[in-house]
Amino acid sequence: MNKAVKIIFAAALCAALSVSVLAFTFTLAQTSNGIRVAYADEIGLRVSFIDCGQADSCYIEFPDGKNMLIDAGENKSESYGSIIEFLDGEGVTTIDYFIMTHSDSDHIGGAVKIFEEYEIGIVYRPHQQATGTSSNPYTDPALKGEGKYGFYGDTVEEKATATYANAMKAAYAETSEVYVFNPFDEEISRITDATSTYTFDFLSPINTDYSDANDYSPIMVLSYAGRDIVMTGDAEKENEADFVEYIKTAKLGDYGGHYDRMIKGEFNADIVKAGHHGSSTSTSEAFLNIMCANEDKRVNCFTIFSCGTDNTYGHPHIETLTRVMDMGFSAERLLRTDLNGDIRFGVSSEGKISVSTEKDADITAKLTSGHTDKRPTETAKDNGLKPNEAADLLPDKPSDGCTSDNELFDPESWKDPTKYSAVQWLIIAAAVIVIVLIIVIAVRSSSKRRRRRRR
User: Fold this and answer.
1) In sequence order, which residues have a C-beta less than 8 Å from that of residue 348 and are 6 or more positions away?
2) 333-345, pLDDT tens digit by residue?
3) Selected residue with higher pLDDT from 423 and 20
4) Is the per-residue pLDDT at 31 higher than 70?
């Protein structure tokens, strides 16, 4: 090996060591109290319950890069505007799946705005016919649709509101892929990726002849890395009762085995979004007994209430708050959009849960019901149970770093190494290599001069 090759080899080795030191330093910056935390780029699944007032909206980012929006809030700028602001903050331009749980305006009122703002791939809609109003009638395309595109069964209830008709018009104008909820159609009852890394199942409504529009909401379960998240729109007691009865009578393996863990009493949710904003007529004891079968594990389950500040319905109701306390859930893991604002969860590929909220709220406030003239404010008694499984603070999503020349020359963009982009790390690596080469060349030149002097 000649001297030139030796010099190049030494320079490369020094550069590699230098970059390794930088990488190690970067790793230490992500470590808390000596314990490695699930950092942003390790979060495989993100689920966010958006504070949109007395309404509903949930945004999901799947491990394969696809995303989903469940419901779009009320047809009021302060409601759907909060959702659009949230999505824009996440850099959303397209939505792969848009779920409209049912026909009430506090869930689909902002749907038209969502269709205007974003490109939508697939839409899931209720098994309920949109007829429009007497002055502006509407013919629902699902009446003539076949298979997943149409209504099924012997009964199709109607909903005669402009809001529902307008949402359906916008959906069918946006995409031809508009599916009607059907938990027994295996083609559409499960959303997943090619390797089933995650699954998103529609498990209800079991029947199609409900008198209350809320009961057309699907019971949905999102599963990833051994964690399960339950969401129900505004499903009421009839929907839940039919679901509970089905679990009692169903056979293992039916409909792709989507119900098997519940049938065997082995399903234990990690996050449950209470139905109908915490109404006393949803999230029944029988339903929770199936979705949180192991009483000892309930203390670690997060219970989410999506409701508005000083709402006129008194949500969440004291009956529901008392129920979850009596059943062994922890008040520490009860979260409310009216008190906590946006609620964000992350699940790592190893099943580690992290959570962050926009605002903090004390336990007494979280256990205090809403208020109306007929429903005075009441506070449920805290059962004093504490979670025995830790949940980390959800870290910020990884920054794209600086991508333009102006940002590269901005001193502020170089202050936090944890937010450096790939370009910045390449610049640093290149600088290290150059510095090492300069040192090696300088040392070599100095050695040559010393040899000449000795001659």
Assistant:
1) 38, 42, 43, 44, 225, 354
2) 999 999 999 999 9
3) 423
4) no
- Distance, in Å, from the CA atom of 100 to the CA atom of 110, rounded to the nearest integer, reads 10
Per-residue pLDDT band at 432 (split at 50, 70, 90): confident
- Asked if 204 and 234 count as a contact pair (C-beta separation under 8 A), the reply is no
Q: Cβ distance 233 to 71 under 8 Å?
A: yes
pLDDT at 449: 64
> In this structure, what are the phi and psi dihedrals at residue 260, rounded to the nearest 5 degrees?
-60, -45
Q: In the numeric block, which tokens belong to residue 219?
A: 């019971």
What is the rounded distance in angstroms from the CA atom of residue 62 to the CA atom of residue 49? 15
What token pair was written down for 176?
A: 């031809």
Contact criterion met (CB below 8 Å) for 338 and 368 = no
Cα 292 versus chain centre, distance: 20
Which residues fall within 8 angstroms of residue 454, CB to CB, at 6 or more apart? none
Q: Which of 258, 262, 274, 271 is nearest to 323 (CA)?
A: 274
Extract the tokens encoding 104: 């009430």
One-letter amino acid of 216: Y
Beta strands in 244-361 (DSSP E): 271-273, 302-305, 334-336, 343-348, 353-357
Distance CA 142, CA 120 (A): 18
pTM score: 0.81
Q: How far apart are CA 1 and CA 115, in angstroms?
A: 67
Return the closest-CA partner of residue 252 out of 240, 242, 266, 239. Answer: 266
- CB-based burial label for 388 (10 Å; 0-12, 13-18, 19+): exposed
pLDDT band at 27 (very low <50, low <70, confident <90, very high): very low
Q: What pLDDT does residue 42 have?
A: 73
Q: How far apart are the first and last CA of the chain?
A: 26
Which are the contacts of 449, defined by CB distance < 8 A and separation ≥ 6? none
Summary mean pLDDT of the chain? 89
Q: Do 244 and 253 touch, CB atoms closer than 8 A?
A: no
